[in-house]
Amino acid sequence: MRNSVPDELNYVDWFRHSSPYINAHRGKTFVILIPGEAIECPHFSGIIHDLALLDSLGIRLVLVQGARPQIDRALSNHHLTSLMEDGYRVTPQDQLLNVIQASAAVRVQLEAQLSMGVSNTPMAGARLKVCSGNYVIARPLGVVDGIDYGHSGEVRRIDTEAIFRLLEDDNMVLLPHLGFSPTGEVFNLKGEEVAVQAAIQLKADKLIIFSEEEGILSDNGALYSELLAKDAEAILKQNSLSSTTHSALAACVQAVRQHVPRAHLISYNENGGLLRELFTREGAGTMVDEDSYEQLRSANIDDVGGMMALLTPLEEKGVLVRRSRELLENEVNRFIVIERDGAIVACAALYPFEQENAGELACLAVSPDYRGLNRGERLLKGIEQTAKTLRLSTIFLLTTRTAHWFIERGFSETTLASLPAKKQALYNYQRNSKIFAKAL
Predict the structure, then answer these.
(1) How many angstroms separate the CA atoms of 168 and 227, rounded?
(2) N or C terminus of the chain with fewer C-beta within 10 Å?
(3) For helices 93-114 and 44-56, angle between their N-to-C axes, nearest 10 degrees
(4) Listed residue (99, 88, 92) closest to 243, CA to CA
């Protein structure tokens, strides 16, 4: 029994730290794309449980269902060949019934699992109400570059009024990848397009896409926990992603460019990835943000004057160690800054100790006029992302006045002996700084 106490305390600590996210997400609308591959993964029952939890926390859910592998099998079983062109499946008349049947089977499977309420499971007492219908109005793709796409189509509009009524009545809405025309035709649509258009037209707070990979990785394999839309577009132009990840990231960019505040890529192969992404600071996938007039970026020599104006008042109060202009100029490549309308409003630095596989977080400062709106958190995430890119396993810091802020963000107090030898030699005993570290 005693051995379980640390795990229980870790759970209590996690639950307490998740409460700000629970409050922030309550009443918000999330559009979530569940591709057919996710429905067949070993952790899909966990995804269903997590969706039920989101619903119980007051989050309004619109689920978009894909069925690519299921359609592939249905066509193969009838000895039919499926043709893909420019990311779209060509759907001739003689294959439409197979597509509809495969999609319907997936929809029924989803509705069945969302209807569970078995005792001693996370679904006990959930009583979810799931509604599906002809809420996606579509039109045919037609003939493009000589290719007749048949019954493959694109979204014309989303019946947002009907969906809002369902959400207001505490229903979960399920949108298939099939759309319907005013002439009574059925069209096979890309799941990503349905999800993006639903998020845009519903003015959703988030678009979430489940994908095979954990998110977007850098060239050396480090996960990007956050990307600005322009940086995501640059990655798309490199054309180094798998086709499914490329489509998912392109959908995220399109959504945030059309004023959806956040879009997320999460792996369906990671059990609990959805909860980690939504309710922990570290997250579990890649979040895409719209570019803003307030930019987080690497510092350059032209920023030194603004950085000095920001740091000097804190140095005079003894919160930060003094740095001369010459030192800042020599070490400016270690800094990241937040620039707002041409002014430096926040900065932080990372000094790597590569031999010890560690890095020092230094100089994290936000202008008193711009505190709030999580600018300190953005700097910390930026430093952590840089450290992961450098394949550092730990970051540490020395502080005299801000210990609690860092404790709340996952740092733990440690000893001088745990620091790299070079840093130990420079320790100022007169300042008597406390030392904190965080594993990445």
Answers:
(1) 32
(2) N
(3) 60
(4) 88
